[in-house]
Amino acid sequence: MSIKTFLRRAIYQTEKTIQRARFPSIQNDLPALLGISFPKSGTHLLDQILLGFSQIAPYSKRLHSFYAEYDGESGIKKSTQQAIHWLDSLSAHDVASAHLFARPEAIARVTSENFIPYFIFRDPRDVVVSHVFYVTEMETRHVHHQYYASLPDFNARLNVSILGKENSAVEFPNIAARFAPYLEWLNQPQVLSIHFEDLIEDRASTLRRIIEHFLTRSALQTPPNLILQTLESSINPKKSPTFRSGKTGEWKKYFTDEHKKIFKNSAGDLLIKLGYEKDKNW
């Protein structure tokens, strides 16, 4: 273990001890809060909301850690054992964030009494648009950055974000295949599913759902209205390191008829499954 890692862990545990001292009336351990997200779907927004619970309960004031199924710089896919090892590193009063596949082993742990889990996702059409901006302009160390930068224009890059990149040394399937490993989270009643759009367009109701889910899994006695005010005040999307617009439905500005066609062919069923369209006539 490096000195930097050791110091970070020591500081984190000290902060957790201070947090417990702030709330002496809460004696029982509270399950870890876990925000699961599909990439480019409001990860940092959900992080801010869950960290807001630190103002009314002895939760950590910073993320314990973030886990991703792929290494951003190399594109190497992580193993089931690595995902489980990360989940097992979390404990009471932690707040953590992850792009986490719904593997059976992960589901068994996440749906246990040790976690209060949430899963946020976004219209995949907005995801692919956001992905183009992120890889091309915001994250120059991303494994696909140079390839995207070599493409002639935005339209060509959007095609790749929709269709993936075949015959690549780094795994990058189409958008439907990228979402597939996350789908089973939608079938877990212990995991609250959240549309990113609802947090933007109907925030109060969505925060109430988040609070209700929390209160069904914990013994906290704080009035829901106080929790709502606290979580509202914790949201500041512009503090996100990858914040760009925070808007919904932006895909309509960028999709050409050709983009619509290839998206319907490759991921039209996904939109229906996620509730964004009733059919392919959009």
Spell out the helices and strands N to C.
Answer: HEHEHEHEHHHHEHHHHH
- Radius of gyration, CA atoms, in whole angstroms: 19 Å
What portion of residues is helical?
40-55%
Beginning-to-end CA distance, first to last residue: 53 Å
Q: Biggest sheet: strands side by side, in what order? A: 2-3-1-4-5
Largest sheet report: 5 strands, parallel
Describe it.
The chain has 282 residues and is α/β, with parallel strands linked by helices. The protein has a single domain (3-19, 29-274), classed as P-loop containing nucleotide triphosphate hydrolases (Rossmann fold, 3-Layer(aba) Sandwich), CATH 3.40.50.300. Helix content is 48%, strand content 9%. It has helices at 3-22, 43-51, 80-88, 104-110, 124-138, 145-150, 154-163, 175-179, 196-201, 203-217, 224-234, 251-254, 257-274, and strands at 32-37, 66-68, 95-99, 115-121, 192-195. Strands 2-3-1-4-5 form a five-stranded parallel beta sheet. The longest helix is centred in the first third of the chain and has 20 residues, at 3-22. The radius of gyration is 19 Å and the shape is globular. The termini are far apart. 33% of the residues are buried.
Topology:
Elements: H1 3-22, E1 32-37, H2 43-51, E2 66-68, H3 80-88, E3 95-99, H4 104-110, E4 115-121, H5 124-138, H6 145-150, H7 154-163, H8 175-179, E5 192-195, H9 196-201, H10 203-217, H11 224-234, H12 251-254, H13 257-274
